[in-house]
């Protein structure tokens, strides 16, 4: 256990530079006194580690010192290979780089770990796009990624989903980061006024400008994306519906894409009646969208409100009933199918 902690201290200082004893203790979840003892042990073992006192002090390694120890365990090596995404990497223009890194990693690992890590590729596959979706294909993805990496300002021709049928507009963007969500690529960029999220396959033209931009040091892509998703959901679901769901109807809604709806059902569902039906409040986008979603559940849902949504459901149900009340009309020359 202590050997693992000593190696962790060494790697933390190598990767992050100067760190205080308090910060090391926090990272490794031990006491500051334990850090003092461990640093002393590393120093006694010949590791060129030294400390400075004062408000800007801390421990650091002698400049230029690098350990060749990786400290990989079998599970860590396997996880590293599992984290590889050859499909998305290739789309970003990094496919050959990822392949080269994996080869170097295999060469550096002991034979047993290399064999176990490589076998991950034969047993696990990450398929990012959702069901019945091919994912995005965009000729400008690699260009956007290069601009993000090099902090180059770009000029794009872009048409949002709200502007379908209109001409694409020219925008000048400072691209801060790229996100892959459900097989779709997005770029988070500053448009001169505010941060916005743009879907990359809706970019119809891109040119990289010579002008560079300064990416804010405190910008956190993961935190921004979490905030964006929360805001998007709040704008997407504008109202609520009260529904009764059969056990089958509830299962039919069990789609990961409906996570907000599923959470609402779990939070508001009443006690099941004798037939297993529950009453719940669910968020809806629009009356039209809600009607389509609930109609696909057939007779496994009973929409109680709002009244306008219930009327729409009843009207559509009556139209369906009238279609199926009689034998279908057939064009001349088409015979009635035989009953099985």
Secondary structural class: alpha+beta
Ends apart, CA distance between termini: 72 Å
Question: What is Rg?
Answer: 29 Å
> Residue ranges: pLDDT <50 for 5 or more in a row?
none
* Overall morphology: elongated
The helix tally amounts to: 13
Task: Tell me what the structure shows.
- The chain is 43% helix and 20% strand.
- The chain is of the alpha+beta class and 340 residues long.
- The protein has four domains: 2-61, Winged helix-like DNA-binding domain superfamily/Winged helix DNA-binding domain (Arc Repressor Mutant, subunit A), CATH 1.10.10.10; 74-123, no CATH class; 141-219, Roll (SH3 type barrels); 239-324, no CATH class.
- The strands form three sheets. Strands 6-5-4-3-7 form a five-stranded antiparallel sheet, sandwiched between helices. A three-stranded antiparallel sheet has the order 9-8-10. It has a two-stranded antiparallel sheet with strand order 1-2.
- The radius of gyration is 29 Å and the shape is elongated.
- The model has no long low-confidence stretch (mean pLDDT 79).
């Amino acid at each position: 256990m202590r050997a693992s902690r000593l190696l962790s201290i060494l790697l933390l200082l190598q990767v992050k530079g100067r760190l205080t004893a308090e910060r090391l203790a926090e990272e490794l979840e031990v006491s500051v006194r334990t850090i003092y003892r461990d640093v002393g042990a590393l120093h006694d073992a010949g590791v060129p580690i030294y400390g400075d006192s004062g408000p800007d002090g801390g421990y650091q390694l002698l400049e230029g010192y690098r350990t060749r120890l990786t400290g990989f365990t079998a599970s860590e090596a396997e996880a590293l290979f599992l984290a590889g995404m050859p499909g998305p990497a290739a789309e970003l223009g990094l496919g050959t780089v990822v392949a080269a890194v994996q080869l170097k990693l295999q060469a550096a690992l002991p034979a047993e770990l290399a064999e176990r890590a490589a076998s991950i590729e034969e047993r696990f596959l990450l398929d990012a796009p959702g069901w019945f979706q091919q994912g995005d294909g965009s000729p400008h993805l690699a260009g956007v990624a290069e601009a993000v990496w090099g902090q180059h300002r770009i000029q794009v021709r872009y048409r949002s989903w709200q502007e379908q049928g209109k001409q694409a507009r020219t925008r000048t963007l400072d691209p801060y980061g790229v996100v892959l969500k459900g097989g779709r690529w997005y770029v988070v960029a500053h448009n001169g006024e505010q941060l916005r999220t743009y879907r990359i396959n809706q970019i119809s033209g891109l040119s990289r400008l010579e002008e560079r931009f300064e990416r804010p040091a405190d910008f956190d892509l993961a935190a921004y994306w979490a905030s964006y998703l929360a805001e998007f959901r709040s704008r997407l679901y504008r109202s609520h519906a009260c529904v009764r769901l059969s056990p089958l109807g509830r299962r039919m809604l069990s789609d990961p894409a409906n996570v907000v709806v599923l959470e609402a059902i779990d939070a508001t569902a009443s006690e099941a009646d004798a037939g297993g039906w529950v009453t719940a409040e669910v968020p809806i986008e629009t009356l039209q969208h809600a009607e389509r979603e609930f109609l696909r559940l057939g007779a496994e849902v009973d929409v109680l409100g709002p009244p306008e949504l219930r009327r729409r459901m009843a009207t559509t149900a009556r139209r369906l009933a009238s279609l199926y009340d009689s034998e279908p009309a057939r064009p001349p020359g088409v015979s009635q199918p035989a009953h099985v």
